[in-house]
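Continuing from yesterday's entry. The apo prediction looked reasonable, so today I'm repeating it with flavin-adenine dinucleotide included to see how the binding region is handled. Same sequence as before; SMILES copied from the compound registry.
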Amino acid sequence: MDFALSDEQVSLRDEVRRFAENEIEPVATEYDEEEAYPQEVMDKAAQMGLTGAHIPIEYGGAGYSVLDVAIIIEELFSVDPGIALSVTSAAFGADAIMAFGTEEQKDRYLTQIASGEAVMGTAVSEPDVGSDVSAVSTRAERDGDEWVINGNKMWITNGSVGDFFVVMCRTDPDASDRYSGFSQILIESDRDGFTAEKITGKLGIRASDTAELIFDDVRVPEENLIGTEGAGFLQMMQFFDDTRTMVAAQAVGIAKGATDRAIEYAKEREQFGRPISEFQAIQHKLAEMAMKTEAARQLTYKSAWAVDQRDQQLTALASMAKAFASRVAVEVADDAVQVHGGAGYVNDFDVERFYRDAKITEIYEGTTQIQKNIIARELLGKSFV
Ligand SMILES: Cc1cc2nc3c(=O)[nH]c(=O)nc-3n(C[C@H](O)[C@H](O)[C@H](O)COP(=O)(O)OP(=O)(O)OC[C@H]3O[C@@H](n4cnc5c(N)ncnc54)[C@H](O)[C@@H]3O)c2cc1C
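Holo prediction written out below.
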């Protein structure tokens, strides 16, 4: 058991930190205010290998382990969660192609993401389908050697900037049980009948693109099927086991960023003739913020390790890490605003943005309630709830 990062991981963390401070920090408020996609930052991040961090080297990626990627995510999110989400979600769906795709799909799609030429997404949620993934209604029907897709997907990260999407479709409406009859199909955004409508007015992560996708008789070749026809639900659940750890790492980054800023402010701000950091109430708050962040980090790293090892505990650990770390992010960001007093309530200070950005980690990729259902299911040895 080793609790220290390797020398390579320390160098990686420091390099990513420098990138975030130089390229992201100066433009963070601007992209948040404008709700704009940070294309300039994306190009630089791709050059550094950050958009394809987990993609294997043979497909042009950086080939980092899940633990390495967690370290990258933490550093980027500790500077600005919105832009960090755009950078680290450019390959959102690549793990499904890596796990279930054909060699041809890997060659064609992973290389484009790794080079920064393309951005992708994963589309499961629909206007009437969120926590209950087994209710997905987007329909894909075979017509000769093509799939014809009809339906709507809601809240899709990278929806209006993405070049292709791993889309959860119902391919057999007469399947014998609730979890069969779904397939993952890759849909390119330049297909006829594909429309994306950007969603604005989000509480946080406003530099990340979110859109509704509409498929109106979209036709793709049958070879766009990812993995096995009818196994899409189980494939998607395995994908979420991997990516939930990444959301936990996002939350750790937010908590770290909020804590760092609260410490800095508490040392500078004076009241009653002394820095507020000399009041024990503030010291205890800072201690609790650091303590909770470190606990969330350890659980997240263990979950990342479990994904790398394909350890049998990984489903439970990923849900524990996501549920725990996301709550920590929300609480710690709240505390950081409190330490700033009135100054924390306006966007002159980053903590106002962290406070808004933190909440999404409790919602996407399965809400906290769904994570608890999964943990309980694993504890009780049950099948899907
Ligand atoms: C900014 C943003 C980006 C997103 N990106 C993507 C994306 O890229 N791809 C994608 O597919 N989706 C994406 N989503 C959708 C996200 O995954 C869903 O919002 C989330 O899964 C919750 O679904 P819902 O919003 O429909 O809530 P609902 O499922 O309607 O849930 C509402 C409330 O009921 C609770 N609840 C529901 N069922 C249960 C239960 N069985 N037990 C206890 N409580 C329950 C939930 O926890 C929640 O509190 C994104 C969402 C947002 C806001």
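Comparison notes:
- Strands lie at 120-123, 139-143, 146-157, 164-170, 182-188, 194-198, 210-221, 225-226, 270-271, 274-275.
- The longest strand covers residues 146-157.
Will overlay with the apo model tomorrow.
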